[in-house]
Amino acid sequence: MSNSWKYERAKNAIDARFKDVETVTVVDYTRDTSLTSIPTNKAYRMDAVHLYVDILNLRDMLESTDVEGETCHKRTLRFLNLHYRAVRRILAASDALRVDFHNQRLHAVVAKPYGEDSEGDRVNRAVAIARLISDVLQETGDDDENIPAAQVRIGIDSGRALVVNNGRGGNREPLFLGRPANMAAKIASNGTDVGIYLSNEARSAIGLEELDAEDIPLTPLTEEEIAECQDAAQLGLSKDTLVSEWRADNKNNPIGSFVFTRVTPPLRDVDISLLTPGNSRRMETISVYADVDNFTAYVDAHIDDDPEDVVRCLHVIRSELDRVLSSDFSGRRIRFIGDCIHGHLMEGTAFQTYTEDTVSTGALCAGALRSGFDLALERLRANDVDTDDLGLAIGFEYGPTAITRLGMQGNRVRCSTGRAVLGSEDEQKRCTGEQTAIGQTAYDGGPASVRTLFGTSRRKSGLTYDVVLEALVADENKVAKAIHAAAYAVVSPSIARAAEAPFRPYSEKR
Fold first, then answer.
1. CB of 136 closer than 8 Å to CB of 148
2. Contact by Cβ (8 Å): 294, 388
3. Which end of the chain is more exposed for a tag (fewer CB within 10 A), N or C?
4. 3-state class of 55 per DSSP?
5. What CA–CA distance (Å, rounded) separates 62 from 76?
6. Max mean pLDDT range (138-152, 173-187, 354-368)
7. Which CATH class, in words, describes the domain spanning 31-252?
């Protein structure tokens, strides 16, 4: 049945996914081990330095026009594509590993030189790479296309993380779980000033004074400190040479124009592997972010004694979130970002998105994500897997969305962008592990029943699938009523007819 969540169906799927990771192998990473195709039931412990590069002016690109039209999206995607190509060249030349490139955020890892006694050398190398990225991206705009240079803020942390498989099929890539990846991301995203910012662990590794926690995102490295790292690292790379090679690459392998067509629903049928700039998709959708709350603390608590539980938790939870989005609600996952899933859904035709129906489905899907998450925790605990105090923070927003792949042929990365994408992440970030939040555009454009459900704060705790469905049915929401009636039609047509009557959860006094 479309657009519904069922306990038994979810339970069977969760139990099947647990069998994938019933036996897990965790080993220490050894030099030059390939991380491209890690088995689902295997993980590596790795000591490395993590960089997160946050492009601060992406939001300005998306908000550069009053109307979020095709021109705005084409400029934004070209902006991302130009800078992604440049950063990819830097990482390859400096022997660093690109982990993820998602909209305005890039995650990279410096694992060499290997060994615990080489931590300072890795941090020096990471700082030198960060400075090179910052300098090169000042040169990689495009005046002819009105594409600005990227303004970047870079966070760096060092330590031990757990490396597992991320993605499926041909989209497998390594995922790093634990404090260093999370801290680097937080430092990069926790401010609007450009610069290179180090955690206390990274500062200590190169002999710098540690800072109070609140000062870490406020204290960039000085020019002198950066120069000392560059001298120690001796990358042997020139900004001018890299920019020249980047320009030659773009001349020999031009990006081409972005051409958009709409999707014929359901979104889950979109084959992202076939997308290119000239074969991109664009339509109004719900963008949803669902992030596992407290997962970094969970990894830190279990990485030494029982890391197998971390692998089991991540695989089971993310599989259920993906199943809910793509199977139960016919949406499309764009990617897993660490312990977070990002995807889209829509209701409509090849010519039009039905705004109110799409927002209603978004609310129901958010409820199903929470119910699926709760059931996944329940089944994990039933199999003696500790889940500690994990929660799920969910945010969703509505608006025009462009979906494509960036980069060069043979090495493209999937991308979806739009104000709704940034907005849904913003909504998720203002939630605790029990809350769901709806963006302002979805709130204003959706039906009154959804506004009533979320209230004026646009954020609410405990919104499971049953809670959302019953509240919307009681408020005469047509999408919810159709799902409610269809559920009972399986049992009895007469019950289905009764279900079409107004749903009133409380008895009324005469």
1. no
2. yes
3. C
4. strand
5. 6
6. 354-368
7. alpha beta
